[in-house]
Structure formats: structure tokens, C-alpha cells
Amino acid sequence: MLSVNDNRKAPQIKKKSFSLVFTLSLLILVALATLSFENYVQHDESVAAWSDSSSMFVEGYVPTTKRFSNVFASSIDDNSTIDWPTVCAHYYNHTNGSSHTGEEKDDEESILNMPWYDIVINVCASIFFILGAGLMSGFTLGLLSIDTMQLDILKSTGTEKERKYAARLAPILKRHHLLLVTLLLWNALCVECLPLFLDKLVPEWVAILLGITAVLLFGEIIPQAVISRYGIAIGGTLFWLVWFLIGLAFIISYPISKLLDWILGADHGTLYKRTELKELVNIHSKAHDPNFHLTEHEAKILGGALEFARIPVSQIMTKFENVYMLDIDNKLDVETMTSIWQAGHSRIPVFKGDKNNIVGLLYVKDLILVNPDECLPISTILTFYGREVLKVFPDTYCDEMLKTFKSGRTHIAIVHEPRESETGGDPYYAIVGIVSLEDIIEEIIKDEIVDETDIYVDNTNQSKINRPQNSTSLLLKLERTHRLTPKQVVAVASYLWKSMATFRLLPEEYLHRLLGKCAVVDIKKTSDQELLLIEKNKECDFFALVFSGKLEAVFGEEKFTSEMGPWSFIGERALTRETFIPDYDVRIVKDVSFVKITKKDFIEIISQVFIQEDSFFLPKDMEWMNPILTNMTKNQTSNVKISSSPHIPHRSSDNLNKNLEPVRPVLDTTPADTEIELDVDHTISQKKGFFQKYSKFKDDMNEEDDIV
């Protein structure tokens, strides 16, 4: 079996081999001609003798008849010359004038007259040579068809038995031509010796028929069918016999094998080109045997890995006109940050003046600590981080690009090409697109990778993803925020205390503290894209009080809508319930400004009241906070000396109605050196008695809807 390399080159025949083969062929022809001439001369003498004696025996049987040989031997002495007429006359008298046929047997040579041990020897010898011919024939096909590359694979990935067999056969099959010559030599010997023993047992025509049948059936078909199917197992078991046969015939087979190695070259196993490997993968993907079957996805990945190395980046890049870019002079304000977020890219090219002049790359992760209110120029970010801009040509192959990306320099490259100036000036480099590591991986796996922020399925064809392009949590973090002024805190506190029972749980001072730390969020609707403040079936953890603008709540499958303007509030249950999942959407209709109170801030204020106010207790729908408040109390007060707490005024409608009066901070009137030891367990046990006393608290208040 000839090895196949990537270029499918045939074994190179050396020039000296032609002269060698020609010389050997000439010598063989001369030898055959000499033997033929000698037989022809003897045949002519036999014919002449027969013609002179006018005998009746058939000329054609003279050279092959054993009885004639006996007559010939008895008719001459060792030193006498051959007298053919006399020999023929003696033969004629010995046969009584009857014609002789090739089927004739001497009476003394009949199987009935043979000793039993001769019969046994001939039968056993015939069986031995039939089996030997079959074994050699099976080894020739079974062992020589095993690829040395397959053995190397089995030694690493096969079962324990397969690894053992492969290790035994590897040194044998590496001497490919030595094994070939040895097996053919022993096969020829067995086939040629078989008729010698069959001819002594049966007539010649039976010997021929029996020999052909036995050799064909037991010497070719059965052994080759079995050993070719289980070649590794049989060869790995009988490897000692193969080495034994090689050793016996080494003197003859080794020189011939070295000659074949010199002429044809050594065998290195079967190797495939890329296209052939890909077709081999496709064949495995169509196999029905689960041990060899490859799924369609696996076949695509393997095929892509074989192909991508010869694909230029120009075939997979995002074209220049579809590239999202930023001007270096842009400010990182709310509008720019929102635009970056909506684009959904992790790396953005930055140009200066002309879009062909790309001067840097803006990594979105570099903007995590950037405050949109500061309106930093993009140039400041580029100067601080100094990201490398990698530029490549369109004919750069994907495998080279992958090596560059793997080196850690960058995961995105600008594709440019030289162009002649239309005005006759110097040539310049024009940007034709960008290529990223994601593009390379997609080409390998032969599929598109779509992450959470992608807008397009395929950047080459600009196929858009059919999904909503909004995210409440991200959007709110990008918008402009600020705090309430002291007067606004008092006004909002008064409104909330009057409007909602939830906030009437808090004393005035604590309600002011809560509002003082809350953010005022301003959202500007810059496009027709739908912006959601609260999304249906997604957990909500904040309360909102609208200052200005317009919101719209959408309920149920019928899409009933309810408009909300200034001083409307939404999300009260997000503060009072452990988990709140709304069954409605709230979308922004016009630019809106609202106070945002998070559940985290609300629980922190409740915990402060829980510690300082002995008379404080929770209503039933908020009792889920009890374990949280207890843990927070222990963490804040265990083994700590604290100043004696000031008197916190009880909630008073008179105080809360002073909407526009600034809140006077409550000063600690206790001297700084006065300290008391707080007994945490005693404090908690006192509060436990209050938890169940407020069962009718809600009944005494006006029930408020969650959305007003």
C-alpha cells in the first residue's frame, strides 16, 4: 500500500532502477531461452527415435511417463551413450504395444498399495500447505491493509487491548516491504508444494481440481475475509509467528525488501489533503453506526476548521459602511453613552476628522467608571488607556489573523487597502472594514454567534435580530441623576406621608433621611424606540414618584392603558413585598423626571427605626422583613458601645404639613463622653411583643392602589 501525501505525488522511481530491472529481465529471458532450446533438441531426438522404430506409443507422453523413465534407466549404463531407438523399442516391448496416456499410474504407485503412514504424511502435508497458503494470503491482505497512521492513533486512543495489539504490530508494519516479500514467499512455497503431495493421493485431474478448490476456498476467500476484518486482533495475537516467518526467510526477503525501499521509498502511512479530510468528515456524518457517527454540528465545526486557514479576512469582515464609529471630539454625555449602549458593541473604532483616519479604539468596559454628567471627551479616554489599533490587509488569511488575536494584542483589527488618489496625489490607505475574533470563530464553527447585546445576526448581510432593544436596568443607569434639595425633601415627604400608608410607618426624620439619599432620574426620549420603565413579568425593586413628564401603564392581554403625569407614583408593592413581579408594563411617553426609592434603601431606613424606636412594629404584609431586621440589628450593635440616642420626634401631621420649611437637623444633646452598654438580646425581646399588636393597622388607614 503506497502512502499518500498532501500533494499526491507518486513514488519517485530512481534512474538506476530502470537499468537494474532491464538487466534482470534480460538475464531471465536468456535463461528461459536456453532451457527451451535444450528441451527442443531432446524433443527432436525423441521424435526421430520414434520415427525410426515405428513404435505405436504416443510421442507427446514420452517426456512425462514414469514407466518410460524406468525403461530408459534400465536400458543404459552410466558410461554408455543414449541410443534412442533402443530405448523406444524397449518401451514398446514393456507396454506390449499399447498406447500410453497421462492418466496412467504404475501399479506399485496406487494409493491402495501405499503404506498407511505415507497416506497420512501426504494428507497432513496437503492440509498443512493449504492452511499455510491461506494464512499467508490472509496476512498479506489483512496486515498490509493496516495503515501505520491508524496504529499510531490506536496506541493513543484505543482500548487496552487495541493499544497492546498496536504496539506489537507497529514495528512489523514499519518494515512494510520486508513483510510483503516474506508473506508472498511463504505463500508461493505453500501453493507450489501442495500439488506434489496431492498427486500421490489422487489422479492428476482430481489433484488439479481439488487443489484449485482448496486453495481458492481455504487459501484465499475465507482467510482474507476473516483476517482483513479482524486484522489487528489476529495480527496482534500471532505477531510471534510473523516474526518467526520473517526470520526464516530473512536471507532471501531482506535484500529484496531493501531493493523495493530504494526504488519505491518507505511506507509512511496514508495522509490526506484538506479537501479529502473534509469529505471524510462528511462521510462520517452520514454514518448510521453511533460509534462512527458525527453530528451535523460537529461536522460543520471540523469542516470549518479545515477551511478557514485559506479564507482571507475580506470574506468575513464587517464592511466599512456598516461599522459603528465615534468621532474623537465627541463628549461622553448621556446621549453618546446611550448610543454606545444601543449599538451593542464591545470595541468601537474612533476616527479623527475623516473616517478613514482611525486613531484609536474605545473599549466599552473602559466606560464603567465614567460619569455621563462630567461629559468627558473621548480623546481623554483614549489617552488614558492607549488601546492599540491593529491594521491588516484584505488578503490576510484567517489563520494568521487568529494567531495575532491569540497573542493578546487585541481582538479587533482594521482592514485597509492602498488606493490611488483621484486627484493625482500620493496613494493612501482606505478603510474597507473591520474583522474581530468573533468573526474568525464564526467562520470556524460555520455558524453565527449572537450574544445579549448584538443587533445583527450576521454583520456581513446585516440581518437584524428579532427581539426588543431595550433594557430598563441599563437604561436607567445611563440617564442623568441628581439629589433632592432640602425643600424638595420636605415637600415630597409631606406628599408621601399623606398619600401612602407605607411611608406613614416612618417617623418624619427617617422619611427625610430616606428621600435625602434617593436619586432623581431624568430620562430623555431621543428616538421613537419604546423605552420601558417597568417591564411585565420581570422583578421590580424600586418605587417611583413622577415629578414631570408622562408615563403610560399597559395592563392585561387587551392592552388597557392608563396615563400617569406629575405626582403619580408606581411600585409601592416593590417596597412592601419580598418579591414583586408586575403584571403590567410602564413605558415612557415623554421626557420624564422621577424620584427613585430602592428596596435596599427602604429596608436600611426601616432597620434604623427598628433599632431606635421601641414602639415601632411592622404590619402583617411586611413581616417578611423581621429576620432581616433582626440580623441587621445584631450586626450593627453586637458588642459595640454607642452614644445615647437622641429623641426622635413622633410622626406629626403638623410637622409634615410644613412643606417648604427646611428640615432642621436633630442634634445630639447628650454629652460626647456619655456612653451606655446596649443589651441587644433584651432590646430584641422587647420588640417581639409588638410584632403581633398591629393586625388592624391597615384597616385604620385608607387603602391605596399600587398605581395612582
Automatic annotation (TrEMBL):
Transmembrane segments annotated in the record for this chain: 18-37, 119-146, 178-198, 204-223, 230-254
Region named Disordered: 639-661
Keyword Transmembrane: yes
Domain CNNM transmembrane: 115-298
Residue intervals of the Cyclic nucleotide-binding domain: 502-606
Biological process terms in GO annotation: intracellular manganese ion homeostasis; magnesium ion homeostasis
PROSITE patterns in the record: CBS (PS51371), CNMP_BINDING_3 (PS50042), CNNM (PS51846)
GO CC list: cytoplasm; membrane
Topology within the bilayer: Multi-pass membrane protein
UniProt subcellular location: Membrane
Key word Membrane present: yes
InterPro entries, A to Z: ACDP, CBS_dom, CBS_dom_sf, cNMP-bd_dom, cNMP-bd_dom_sf, CNNM, Ion_transp-like_CBS, RmlC-like_jellyroll
A Pfam family hit: CNBH_CNNM2_C
Keywords from the UniProt entry: CBS domain, Membrane, Repeat, Transmembrane, Transmembrane helix
Domain CBS positions: 385-452
Protein's name in the database: CBS and cyclic nucleotide-binding domain-containing protein
Species: Naegleria gruberi (Amoeba)
